[in-house]
Structure formats: structure tokens, C-alpha cells
Amino acid sequence: MRNLICVVLVIFLAGCASTKVQVPIASPAPPLQTPFAPQGEYTFQLGDQLDVKFFYNPELNESVVVRPDGRISLQLVGEVMAFGLTPAQLTKQLMEKYASEIKQPEITVIVKSFGGQNIYVDGEVNKPGLLPLAGFMTVVQAISQAGGMKESGEPMEVILIRHGAGNRPTTFKVDVKKVIEGTDPRQDTLLKPFDIVYVPRSKIANVNLWVDQYIRKILPFNVSTGIGFGYQLNPDDD
Questions:
Q1: pLDDT by residue (tens digit) across 74-84?
Q2: Using CA atoms, how far apart are residues 84 and 196, in angstroms rounded to an integer?
């Protein structure tokens, strides 16, 4: 029995040493933007409700919604791509299209309501899922809104996934532990629509899972893991 225990413990320690967590290659966290700093010119998103107003032709005024295909439908000119354009860009495009239909079109585009302002929080949080991005929200606030981080989460390697140029995803690593401790609050990045916050599983959590699956089921004594990866023999064991 003693020899069996020694062999299993050797296997256990080897498993602890080889346990690794696969974390996406990420860049440092992007610079923190304060809520009072300009966030860049707004571009239309899916679900936005727009008011298109004509100064000299009010009968053409319309309220439209940016459809899932990114387009809006208007009188006389039909379907127009709006997704990703700024209000100034869409206004210019509409004036060019209506120029062949009416004389001297004077148009303005107003965002009546914002749609699609959501983020997603996944991984080792208590309530993963979609969150509305109402106002300003940071990475730490998003994790809090998702029910907080589980004990199995790794706060030093939280991943922020953001759509970059050409709609390609860009990843950033955020050290939430430094934010909470106050040593580097700049890590707490302000989120943008469609951002994904992913809390990975910690190395110690992976080791505990391995112990549950392979060690506790075969050893004749109780094994408890923690920071020290220790074990405890039953009092009745020799």
C-alpha cells in the first residue's frame, strides 16, 4: 500500500508541474479613456434608430432602423448602407443620391436611439452572458455586472477581445488584480460596443480539477489541494 501511495504521489506531482493554461497571445491593455475624454466620432451600429429630415421637403422625412444587414430603406432612393458610417458620411451620401430626385436637397441625419450597444462577458464569472453597454463601463465593472469573478478565475490574465481594423479581432491582456489593488488603475480599460471580456481559468483551478478527476477517485486517503499543493492522510492510515 505504501508503495502504491508513493507511485501515485509521483504521478500527481508530475501532473502539477506539467499543468499549463493556454491563454491567447495578447497585447498590453489599451490606454484608459476617461468618461470625460472624446471617444471618437460615432459610427452607426445595427439597431440604431435614425431620423432623416429634409429641410425643404418635409414630406420625405422618415424614421428608420439600421437593419441586421446594415442597410436602411428610404423613399425614392431605396436601400442605403448605413452601418459603420458617421452621421456626416451618411448625410453626404444621401444628398448625392437625392440630388437626382429633388433640387438642392438639404438633409440631416439624427440618431434617435442607440441599438446594439452590448458587450459579452465569458469565462470564470458567475453570470456569463450579454450585458447592455449603457453609458460608460470598464472591464472591472463588466466583471462585477456579470456576478463577479469565480475563485477559479485568473485576475492577472483577463483577456479583452475587440474588433479592430477590417473587423479583425484584437486581444489585450488586462491585469484586474492591479486594478483592484490600486497599483495600476490604468489597466481598467473603458469598453466599446461588441467588446468581449474573457476571464480564463487559473492554473491552480486546473490542478484542482485534475485532482478531482484522477487522484481523489483512486487514493485510499483524502487529498486537499491549495496554494501549497499539499495532501492530508486519514488518521486511520498507517
A1: 989 999 999 88
A2: 19
